[in-house]
Design brief:
single chain; Growth Hormone, Chain: A; Immunoglobulin-like; 4-stranded antiparallel sheet; 62% helix
Amino acid sequence: MNEKKYLKWYQKVAYGSGDMASNCGYALISSFVMLYLTNAVGLNSAVIGTLMMVSKLLDGVSDIFFGGLMDKTKSRMGQARPWMLFGQIGVSACLFLVFCIPDMGQSMQYAYFFVFYTAFNAVFYTANSIAYAALAAKITKNGQERVQLGSIRFIFATFTTLVISYNVMGLVERFGGGAKGWRMVAFIFALTALAVNTFCVLMVKEVPDDEGQAAGEAGNSLEQAGTGDASGKIGALGSKAAEKVGFGTSLQLLFKNPYYIIILGLYLVNYIYSGITQGSAIYFMTYYMGDPALLGTFSLFQLVPVMIILTVTPMLVKKFGSMWKVNLYARVITLLMGVVFIAGALSKNLPVMLFATFFRNMAGGPLTGTLNALVAETSDYTWRTQKVRIDGVMFSCSSIGVKLGGGIGSAVVGWLLALGGFDGKAAVQPAGEEVRLCAKADRERMPADGEALSFITIKLTDKDGRENLFASKKISVAVEGAGRLAALGSADPQSLRSYDDTEWETYDGYVLAVVRAGEEAGRIQATIKAEGCEEVKLELVTEPQKTWRP
């Protein structure tokens, strides 16, 4: 029997775009708020991590509360859409305010962050995300359409995350850097999220529950798999309407559903991992790999394969006959690629790391795309067995998993940074790799004409010779013999130092020295020093003009 179709193609796209709105806030907070707080504001990462953890515990409690409120909602827009629409207003406001910590005492800054971070997560994002997740069950009762919605929404999510990863750091610098730059970036993303969320809400409509009952009784994947109770035994609740079910009863129904417990665990594990990787990624690229631009490259190798696999996930589910088989095979591949990635990271082998990242996320994509559909099926199981619909409370599991799991992961990042002695305001991080001094002249022979120049590029590297753009040292240059130091300086646009000085601080790990030849032939010795580094000596030669051959 063919299931009834409820949605046009543009409605599926409109629903999926809602995850773009969600990730404008979630991705910015999860990936960059720690960096903003440590580097732009100067707060302690361990304290921040702890505050995040406490906030997420409060957040976890609020999920079920808001889910219950949604189930009791009656409006012309339905149950889910009002919460989604008005919740986003608060989300956008708090997103902006989190990145606008005022200049005040540090204790007050921690309190300010905690209040608006908690309001963002535990109140407004909770209301919005639960409503958005539940909307998948309310706008269609077709199982295949639900899988499609899950895939489309996560395509939007991954695309948004990719754009953010590639552009946020550049946008911060473009808007003036520091706290000012972060404030402007947060404002842009807050407005974008509000506009896209409103579009999503207005383009879809909810299906009445009585139509959903008929669809649910026609069959479901849980029952087809032999796990459902086809008899649909009705408990003491009988056929009570959802709005008459109390909060305590909703909780009982929730934990009577074994599939809810399983999926909640899946969400927690997935997003603890996600919180750790997203929160640490910018630090990993900046301080371990030595190039923050790699964040965009790795995001590309993470998200593109997910976007590819999600487009075919509905076909894979249809081919294998069930979502759990697809996810089981995918998880085995994911674990293997994780081992390969760790091996590549230990040796800083970028090609191996990118290879493992691509195929790991290719394999992990189906679970991402089917989780929301699984929750929808699980919610229908409660309806069939108990004759009570608690979509809002049921879909709270996705929100609990996303936010509690992400909060634990983010807190772990903060604690590890503090354990490693990280100081966001320090130019050179403690416990870092050895910094070495390297210098090279563009030419070692010059005519002794009093005008010829040799440009010496001086840079800081790690022990393997890779550029260290984030170390900062004062470089001194002394020139002796048949020439003189003509200029010394860096590309720092804010420096007011004279190029006649013999000592300059590196900018992005570099300074440039210019040596001018004398009018008498001979040898020139340039001695380059930096505190904590072995000095470097270069020898240049000036030759008589009459014998000079370039």
